[in-house]
Amino acid sequence: MNFFKKMKIPAFSENIIKDYGVINEYNKGIAKFRHNLLLVERFGKKKIVIREKTTLIGGEVRHFQFDEQGARRLKDALDDALKRMQ
Length: 86
What we know:
The protein is 27% helix and 51% strand. By secondary structure, the chain is an alpha+beta fold.
């Protein structure tokens, strides 16, 4: 039996409310990078999560989490950057 399934450790559990899909995907050499945007609820708090998956020999997953205040700051920064890109 899988250890983590048996233990049901709450630190590893998060409820995905909405998966916004892949927002960026690219190859760099033999590695493949994929970024997904998720809205999750963890410990009763909702957060925006950018999940980065790397597929190389073993693979790696990293999560960048933003609470409501961080998400608002990120939105403002993205809006400003988009205006400057035009």
